[in-house]
Amino acid sequence: MLTFKQYVRAQSLDEACDLCQKRSNLVLGGMLWLKMEDRAVNTVIDLSDLGLGTIEPVEGGWRIGAMATLRDLELHPGLAALTGGAMAESVRHIVGVQFRNLATVGGSLYGRFGFSDVLTLFLALGAVVHLHKGGDVPLEEYVTRPYERDILTHVFLPDQPGRTAYLAQRNISTDFPVLTCAVALRPEGVRCAIGARPMKASLLTDEAGLLSGGVTPESAAAFAEFAAGRMTFGSNLRASAEYRREICKVLVRRALLACKEDV
Known about the structure:
Largest sheet: 5 strands, antiparallel
Pfam families: CO_deh_flav_C, FAD_binding_5
Number of helices: 10
Keywords: FAD, Flavoprotein, Oxidoreductase
Domain FAD-binding PCMH-type: 1-162
Low-confidence stretches: none
Mean pLDDT: 91
Structural class: alpha+beta
Protein name: FAD binding domain-containing protein
Distance between the termini: 49 Å
InterPro entries: CO_DH_flav_C, CO_DH_flav_C_dom_sf, Diverse_Substr_Oxidored, FAD-bd_PCMH, FAD-bd_PCMH-like_sf, FAD-bd_PCMH_sub2, Mopterin_DH_FAD-bd
Helix content: 25-40%
Number of strands: 12
Radius of gyration: 18 Å
Strand order of the largest sheet: 4-5-8-6-7
């Protein structure tokens, strides 16, 4: 159980950032996974008063506040149009509606959890996170960084032409995923993110040019084999590394063909 001595509703980002510099302090987010930790902290920092719960169109894409919930992502018509329904698909199996009404985008991305459906899709979409002190950082770079004592305030999703598909394998609905897969077909090429390996999501592009002639059943199968060979997989109580590698081939191939069918 998480225990703390002091609760602070920050009234500015500067205040929140100053407070989180102390190793004994912690930003709350939606307070869902954190409450399950066996940990004692000095001060917990609530960002609810900072206006970070919005999803708004900006030049070139969408700006999503860190305190926007997963349910907000699921129901937002603009994000549905941007992703062809992949946004809602990526979150609809996460526990239940009550949970998604509380879990935040910022918590999902800052935590960089291996099981994160949100991280997988946002990585494929070319998201850029904005840190209060650190500025804009591409998500594909951010996932490789160590945890920083900074406040993730917003996420930018570029509005790019192309198609997107999201698939995940679960042993049972609402459980943590065995493997996650997001594919974004763009004019400049494909972005394929694989997560729940069980490590955090990682991004692949078509460096071998397997899809240069377009997406066909044959090229999709070839890229899926390439993706499964390039990714590292591990074993845990949900699945073995070998099983995940085989599932990767299936999900990548199906996601590519789903994008092709929408064209």
